[in-house]
Every structure is written in structure tokens, then in C-alpha cells.
């Protein structure tokens, strides 16, 4: 039996919004530690990893590890039926082929119950090596979202370069080119608006903007986004998920394979 | 093509993939069926084949490949292996035979139908219970009572003396129809050929009858089926209604046809119409339009013209026959006392028309040929336009029927005299008449099919025709057509000889035109019935529906033209030229393209193959991309590893499977499909060809008196008939060691030459610059992108894999399970598995005397009916049981 109750149901809704366009079908791995998901998009260029810690739930019970494969757009559709203030409870009996979602409205006696069919999915679990990155950038997530959106008007790919205490996003296309420069700021009073860059070595790498724009859909989850880059390693875009009261709930991490010059291989 | 049923087995393995993930992959492209696909698949909005379809198709597909940055290597077919040739030949033979059979059966069915109709019309007089309905029916069919279907007019002849009695009989005859209405198949050809009045009658009755009590007994017993029952009834009703409407329309049109004929006569085409002296009801119309045929200068415009004149003539033809009908009807109205004559002509005219048609098609053909030769400058032009003519055989038929009327002009005496003589003979005795008419109809049918065959074949004896027509030019018209007619009947045998010769000739003709005959020839059998109905329809159809019909015919012609097109060497050369322009490397396989694709992958020159041909697996393909150019389906990737892991079948078992179900190299065994084949393979295990050898020896042992199969699965294997040579090692080796080019030279991709490609597309496809750029520029832009998108899998390695369940049928699943249990059954016998599995694994474990006894015991239990205890029987039994353990010997 698996059961998880989340008073802030909106978090789950936001998570689904952040992944459903990238991955259509995926399996949730539920264990006593929490719920996690790892999936690649169909073209195998990007990977998304979601982690929701058991502590973050208001009630969490997982007798034995279960894999809940499901169509994420279906799940997202059903979550649309839940209000932002609703409490969401996930229930899955052992050996069942359905997962039950119960939505309870705040301060009201209304509850609704939905069921989603589970699927037996063909999935691969990729091992992600824990490597130190040459560059770590923390920036406001809405800023990142805007940069990605703007640059997609210019071209398909963005070149991210980092030197000293500034990061530069550049795109080139038929109509011209565009660059956005961000410098490190230190605004102590507003930590979520600050840009912080820690750099071991300078780097320059290109990525497909299409995917970055998919990643930016996680913006509502967190005020800050962290980008980690290293040569010849996928870019990591991480949004940490926090509760209303500020406690750590988990993260959503995106990995994006770079575009490299043809001569390199 | 490919192995029968193999894709169906592999289906659960296929995974849909995103084309973007194929970026930078080196893939072999099996070109072998592309040309055929493009030629037959691409058509314009009228259904006609598109010129240069083969390169156009290739052009688009190359653009698709390059857009996804795939590095393709095109693999062309070389020669055709002997085995494949054999299989194709036997298949062709079988198809011809089955066609013949079906034709025979159709004739038989028609015969019996006619016979039953005639019998019924004669014998239903005594049926008293019909009287009540009879009176109502009489009221209903007041106007139509004199109008009889062609099948029943014989009644008339035998009752010349007593008109009232004959009248009664007619009604009875028609009534007998009603009696068996429920048996009448309203979709059948025979039904459609009935006069519209009769059809209308039958249909209305059918419709009314349906509302009666009859439906209570038809109600389904299962309540769940009720809605589907309702649905089917609704559909049926609608069909009836539609048929009624058609019949009504036709009835109306007949009345108007006379005026319409006048109208069409003023439409600008020059006509000459004359009455046949001996027959007041038949008119002959000469249409000048056919002269246009001879004036064709270039083959293209010529074709258009010919087609146009065909169309016009076609419509004219229907007018002509309409006219016939109208005439006879009018006379009938005026003169109802002349019941006999009127109904005779009324019914006889379609028959007559077809007869005239049939008789004159030959002579007419010669005339047309003559026109052609007189006016066209070159022989080639002549043959080209002739070819086109042949392909439009549908229209041809109609036209010929029309022109037959024209040429009737030239030789009226002969035709009419024969008709007259036939008429008189028909009137001799009613028994005889019955037979005669029956024969006549069948003759018309068969002759029609023969005609369409002839039409197709005429181009072959070209030389004789040319000679003939030149020589006959000097003679006067009448004599000429007669001479030709005679000669033509002699030519009857020649086409068949030509056919045989044509078939063997290699595809070497520069223009490729000749080969159109080959394929055209193959289709006429199918078209016979169509042609027949078309002629009938054309005779009956109203001018209003002519337009619609024309459209349909045009579509049909387009379809057939496409089918007639075949691949020539020229096309392959053109395709290769285009590949050079794109800078794409290509290989020509010594024999089969699929084998070469597989070899390239095994030599690690490619990372997979794009093909829809399941033969690739038998030649050793490892990664196959299916449905690549199928817009309606996802591109799927199949991996040999997955097949081996999930389905437990490897390349050798797939070859064995092919030998059971049938493939390009072997016909397989009749009655064995993919599922049964897997069951056989799971029952008789082994390496390489062993499963089949074991199967054969087991089967041989079961062909004696001992029929006990041993287990339930094997029970159905006995009934198959295996050839002595089965399993054929040659086939097995042909798959396992195909002749391929195994040079390790790596491939290089050039840059597409944009200017040359632009020029090429503009000149070959007639595209304008913007259209070319629309297609080419995105591709070039993609190719110019120097950045390569990497994949996540290039960086992170897969740690754990969870494969989803494969959904197959129960039978297949148990067979796969059994195949998979081969390795595991040594350690333990799975208890949960099916009984048969346990039994067979037990058998493998203890293969000694004990098994033998067991088998014996089992066979005794299974066949209690065959308790004949003769000595020979027990001997046979012993042999059988002995061979079983020996068959499982090879497994471990």
C-alpha cells in the first residue's frame, strides 16, 4: 500500500506542469524515502529527474517500493481538477492497476476522487555520476525564463559562456543575433533576486533553446534556478522545491546534452 | 514480400522513436521497393501516375533523411536469386489457377442462377397460395407487366397461340421472383442486370416485407446483440432504399432518353444515323469523333485527344443504347397489342447490343490501327499511343462498343443476318431457347472477358497488324474489315505465345514501355467482371449520370495506369544520378539489397537499416527502422537483442519460421501461419535447421497408422502436408550465407550541390524556383549547421532496465515461454507453466525407456477408438515413439 498526502497540492500541480511537455509517459518510483521520477524525452537529448522527499509530505506511507508508470499528460489533466489550495492524497494499492487521487478542498467538506490507469512502461534508469562542475550559476528563475524565451526568437541554440563574474547567453539566427549578460550581484536584502557565479574555469557551450524553454516551465516552483556546467558534460538546470514554510521538499533537475561542433567527434 | 507473419510477431518489440534521435547515424536504406512504391503510390488529383514519380519520391525522401541529419547509404538490388525467381514463378502459376477457378465458379453460379430462374418461371403456376398476393401485385405492376427480364422472354415464344395464358405465366414468373426474394442477393451482378422495373418491384417488396412478422424470428437471442442487429437492419434498409432510388432514376431516364439523344446530337459532334433496313427498332449512329484518333501527332497530346474522344464516344454510346431502349419503349406504348414483339425487342436489345459489340470489336480495332499508321510518322509513336489506348481498356471497351456500332455501318448485312438467324432459331422450341439464351448470356460474359484480354494483347502482334492494314488499305472497306476479322481470329493464339515470350524477356527495354503490357496482362482477369458491368451500366445509364461515371472511369484508368507502370533500369540509373547530386553514397548489392544492408551493419559500416522488409532479419540485420517513410505511423526501431531476449527467437529460428510460413525464397507450408510456426519451433527445438528436421521426422512417423500426436499442441501439426524435400537446406543457406559485397571501405558523404539540384528539380519535376527552395533550403540549412546535438545517453550510462510487458496472444505467449524455457528446464521444471510445457520438459529430462512407455501409454489413452491390435500397428507405434526421443536428442 502506498499513500501520500500533500496539504499544498499546488506543488504537485506545478511539478506536473514542469515535466508533462517534456516527457509523455514516465514511472514514479515510490520508496520509503519518497517519490522520484527519471525520464528522458523522446529524442533522448534531455533528462528530467524529480525528487520529492518523504518528509515533505504531510503523511507518507510506503510499505514496499512500487513503480507507478503513467501517462503524465493524463495525470496532469486530472490534477487540473484540483484547486490550488486543495489537499491532494495519492493512493495506490499493491498490485493494483490504478492510482487514486483524492482532492480535499480547504476548510470545506468537499472531496473529490479520481483514478488514473497505471501502465507497465519500458524504462531505463540512468546512472548520473556525481561530478563537480566548473561553473555554478544561481540566478532568479524568472530571469532565466525570460532569457530563454527572448533568445528563442533569435535562434535555435544558445551559447552559454562564463568568464570571471559574468555569464553570457548568446544566440544567432537569420534575423540577427542577441546576447544577454548577467553579472554577479550581491543583494543581501533580496536573496531571490541575486545572481551568484562560482567558477573554477571558464566555459563556453551551446544548447538547444527548445529544451531550455521546456525546463523554464518549472519557474513557478522556485524563485531561484541553478545552472551547472562543465565541458563535455550535460548542463544541469535545477529548481529546488520548498514548502510555504521554507522547508526543503525536493528538487526537479533537468539535464541537457550540449550541441558540439562536428569536427570535435 | 518478406516473411509472412514475421512483422506481426515482432510487433511488440518495436519501439516508436523520435526521428531527431537518429541524428548523425549512419543508416543503410533498402532501396529495393522504393521505385515500385513511388511509381504506384504517387498520383495526381485525377489518379493518373505522375511523370518522373520515381525520382520525385526519391527526392522527397532524401530530403527527409538529410533534414534529420541522417547519413544514409542507399543499397540497390542486384540480380534476383534463383530461389526467389522460382517462388515468384510458382506463385504466379498458383494465382493464375485460382483466377481461372474463380472464373469458372462464377460461370457456374450464373448458370445455376439462370437455370433456377427459368425453372421457377415455368413451374410456379400451380402455386395456389400465391393467388391473393398475385392480385395485389398485378395492380402494382400494371405498367410493367409486359416488360420482362431478358431471362424470361423465352416464355413468350412458347405461348404465341395463347396470349392470356402467357400473360398469366409472366406474372407467375415474376411472382416466383417475389417468393424467393429473400434469397435474392441485391448486390449480385445478376440482379443488377435485371431491368430497373423488375428491380424496383423486388426491392419495394423486400422493403415492405421487412416490416412484417418475419423479423421476430430474426431477433437475436442475446440481448447484447440487439443494438448491432438494429444497426445491421438499418444499414440493410438504407441499401434497399438506395437501390430503389437507382432503379427509379433509371426508369425515369429511359423515358427521357429520346429527347436527350436529340440534344446530344446538336452538341457539335458530327453524327450520321441510319436505320437498319431489316429492323425497325435498331438504329446505327456513326460518330465522326473517332477520326481524331488518327490525328495524334505527339504522344502526349495524342493521348489526351484519344482520351477525350473516348469520353465523348463513351457518352455517345450510352446515348445510343438509351435511344434503343427508348425506341422500343415508345413502340411498346403505342402498340401494346404487339406484346410479343415489343417485349422481345425491349429485352433483346441489350443482348443484341452486346452481341454486335462483341462481333465488331475486332474489325473496329483494325480500323483504328489503320488510322494510326496512316497518320503517325514513327512506329514508336504509334506503339506509345497504342499502349495508352490499351491501358484505358475500360474506356476502350465502351468506345469499342460504340465504334462497333459505327462499323456496323460497314458490315450491317452480315451482322443483321446473323442476328436474324439467331432470332429465328431461338423461336424454334422453348426448351432449346432456354438453353440457347443461357448459353448466350454466358457466352457474352466469357467473350467479354476474352475481349478485354484481347484488347490488352493486341499490341503484341503489331507487325502482323501493320502488314495487314497496309495491305488491306487498297481493298474496299467492307472487304477489308472482313479479311481482318478472319486474320484476327487466327491471331488469337499469337498473343498467348507473346505473353510467354514477354514474360521471360529481361527488363532491358530502353523506354520501359513494353513492360507495361506485362502487368496489364496480369490484371484483365480481375477486370473482366468489372468490364462486363461497365458495359451493361453504360448501356443503361442515363446521360445525367454519365458525368459521374466518366469521373469514376477516369479514376479507374488512372489506377490501372499506375499499376501498369514497372521499374526499369533507366529509373535506377536516374535514381543514382540524383543520389550523386545529393552526395549520398550508394551500393549495388550482388543480389538482394536487404542482405547487403544486413552485411553492412555486421561489418559495422552502418548503425542500422531503414526498411519495411522483414527479410532483413533473416539476413542478419540487428537494428531495423520500420515505417520510416510512412506518414501515418510512428517510426519504430526493432533490435535483434530485444527479439532474442523477449521473444526468445534468434536469426536461425526466424529462417526456420520463414520456411514454415513462406517467404521470398520458399512457399512455406500451407496452413501454417506465424503463430503455428512459433509453436512448431517451440515443440521441436534445436540449433540451426534442427527444429525443422526434427519436425519433419516426427511428422513422417505420424503419417503411418499411429496418429497420436503426443500432446495437444502437436495434434494440429499432423494435418499439414510436408514435401519430401522439406526442410530445404538450400533455402536455409541462402538466408544464412547470402551473396554480399563485404568490402570494408568506408563511405563518404558529399555536400548536396544546391545549384545542380535546383536545376534538376525544375527541369524534371517542372517545379518553379520557389517550390524547389521551399523543399531544398531547409535541408541545406540543417546540413550547414555545424553543431551536433549530443544525446544524454552519450554521457550517462544505463544502470537498470525495466522492460514493459509484451502483450501477445495466449498461444504465442506460451510458445515463447516454452522457447525460453530451453535453458532453464535443466535445473528445474517450472510447475506453474502449462501442462504441455511440463510434459515436454519432462520428456527432455528423462529421455529413455521411461519416456517411451509414457508416450505409449499416452497414445493409448488418447486414441481409445483405434484399438486395432494387429501386429503391424503396434510396430508402427513403437517406431513412432522411438522417433520422439530421438527428435529431442539434439536439444541439449
TrEMBL record, chain A:
Which Gene3D superfamilies does the UniProt entry name for this protein?
Answer: 3.70.10.10
Its GO biological process annotations read: leading strand elongation; mismatch repair; regulation of DNA replication; response to hydrogen peroxide; response to methyl methanesulfonate; translesion synthesis
PROSITE patterns in the cross-refs: PCNA_1, PCNA_2
Where are its TM segments located?
none
| Proliferating cell nuclear antigen PCNA C-terminal domain location | 127-259
Where in or outside the cell it occurs: the entry states: Nucleus
Q: Which GO terms describe its cellular component?
A: PCNA complex
Instruction: State the signal peptide span.
Output: none
Q: What keywords are annotated for this sequence in UniProt?
A: DNA replication, DNA-binding, Nucleus
Write down the CDD domains for this protein, in alphabetical order: PCNA
GO MF annotation list? DNA binding; DNA polymerase processivity factor activity
Query: Its principal location?
Result: nucleus
- InterPro entries named in the record: DNA_clamp_sf (IPR046938), Pr_cel_nuc_antig (IPR000730), Pr_cel_nuc_antig_C (IPR022649), Pr_cel_nuc_antig_CS (IPR022659), Pr_cel_nuc_antig_N (IPR022648)
Domain Proliferating cell nuclear antigen PCNA N-terminal: where?
1-123
The record, for Pfam families, names:
PCNA_C, PCNA_N
Q: NCBIfam families, per this entry?
A: pcna
What role does it play? This protein is an auxiliary protein of DNA polymerase delta and is involved in the control of eukaryotic DNA replication by increasing the polymerase's processivity during elongation of the leading strand.
Instruction: Tell me the PANTHER family matching this sequence.
Output: PROLIFERATING CELL NUCLEAR ANTIGEN
Task: Give the protein family.
Answer: Belongs to the PCNA family.
- Mind telling me what this protein is named? DNA sliding clamp PCNA
Q: What is the organism of origin for this protein?
A: Dinothrombium tinctorium
UniProtKB/TrEMBL annotation, chain B:
The cross-references to Gene3D superfamilies, in alphabetical order and at most eight, read: 5' to 3' exonuclease, C-terminal subdomain, 5'-nuclease
Using the UniProt annotation, give all residue ranges assigned to the region (Disordered).
458-491, 817-892
- Record field: compositional bias (Basic and acidic residues): 470-490
Assigned keywords, A-Z: DNA damage, DNA repair, Endonuclease, Hydrolase, Magnesium, Metal-binding, Nuclease, Nucleus
One GO cellular component term, please give it: nucleus
Stored PANTHER family: DNA REPAIR PROTEIN COMPLEMENTING XP-G CELLS-RELATED (PTHR16171), DNA REPAIR PROTEIN RAD2 (PTHR16171:SF7)
Q: Domain XPG N-terminal spans what residues?
A: 1-98
**Protein name as it appears in the record:** DNA repair protein complementing XP-G cells-like protein
Task: Give the matching PROSITE patterns.
Answer: XPG_1
Q: Which residues form the XPG-I domain?
A: 580-649
Q: Name one GO biological process term.
A: nucleotide-excision repair
The similarity comment for this entry is:
Belongs to the XPG/RAD2 endonuclease family. GEN subfamily.
Q: Where is the composition biased (Polar residues)?
A: 880-892
Molecular functions per Gene Ontology: 5'-flap endonuclease activity; crossover junction DNA endonuclease activity; four-way junction DNA binding; metal ion binding; single-stranded DNA binding
Q: What is its main location?
A: nucleus
Q: Where in the cell is it found?
A: Nucleus
- Organism of provenance: Dinothrombium tinctorium
